[in-house]
Structure to design on (236 residues):
């Protein structure tokens, strides 16, 4: 008998279940996520985006909720043979989360693993300097935190963000993503207070990009420009 996992904290869009190309782009996805989070509009909450693809999503959420915004920089540890896939993630505090199940099936040497971890850590430091200016991370104690990305593939990047955030003692952690596989939804859901995932997909194959009609990779300089535009909007 297969045990069913009941996720009482999952909010999805039932009409989007197993659909492809349901969002025009990341900004459209962010607007749709914000509509599911409308009860937090004008309240004391912090929206955090995961660069790079999660930032245009999180900025739209922050705009519509009239919330503060920052970035939480985590990095997928890439496979040497396939930079689009990963075997874990490095969190903001330098914590390393490895997908041991995947590693058991990969023929990677210890040096290859350590080299890829080193590259991920170097990327985090570089992005911290560019996107956050090495500012202290904002205080999240007793606040509602909404952490957003453009989708969850393996889930390890989000797991690393969640573990870091838990040490910041927030009142609630809400994960808001446009799309994810059911397997990853089941992985993330027990670790947070609420999971907003509009497009849940089942099946053996999953790619975040398949949820979008327009998909491209954003460079760090472009993400910096988005963050600066938002900062200027807030100052008006």
């Amino acid at each position: 008998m297969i045990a069913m996992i009941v996720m009482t904290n999952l909010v999805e869009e039932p009409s989007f279940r197993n659909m492809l190309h349901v969002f025009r782009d990341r900004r459209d996805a962010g607007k749709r996520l914000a509509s599911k989070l409308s009860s937090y509009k004008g309240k004391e909450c912090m929206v955090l985006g995961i660069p790079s693809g999660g930032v245009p999503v999180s900025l739209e959420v922050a705009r519509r909720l009239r919330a503060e915004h920052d970035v939480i920089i985590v990095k997928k540890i890439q496979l040497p043979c396939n930079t689009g896939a990963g075997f874990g993630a490095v969190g903001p505090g330098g914590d390393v989360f490895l997908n041991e199940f995947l590693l058991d099936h990969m023929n990677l040497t210890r040096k290859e693993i350590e080299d890829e971890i080193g590259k991920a850590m170097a990327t985090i430091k570089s992005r911290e300097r560019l996107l956050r200016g090495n500012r202290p991370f904002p205080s999240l104690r007793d606040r509602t935190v909404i952490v957003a990305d453009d989708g969850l593939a393996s889930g390890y990047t989000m797991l690393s963000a969640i573990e870091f955030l838990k040490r910041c003692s927030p009142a609630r952690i809400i994960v808001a993503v446009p799309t994810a596989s059911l397997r990853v939804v089941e992985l993330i859901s027990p670790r947070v207070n609420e999971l907003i995932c509009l497009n849940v997909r089942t099946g053996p194959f999953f790619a975040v990009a398949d949820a979008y009609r327009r998909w491209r990779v954003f460079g760090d300089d472009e993400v910096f420009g988005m963050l600066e535009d938002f900062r200027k909007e807030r100052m008006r």
The mean pLDDT is 92.
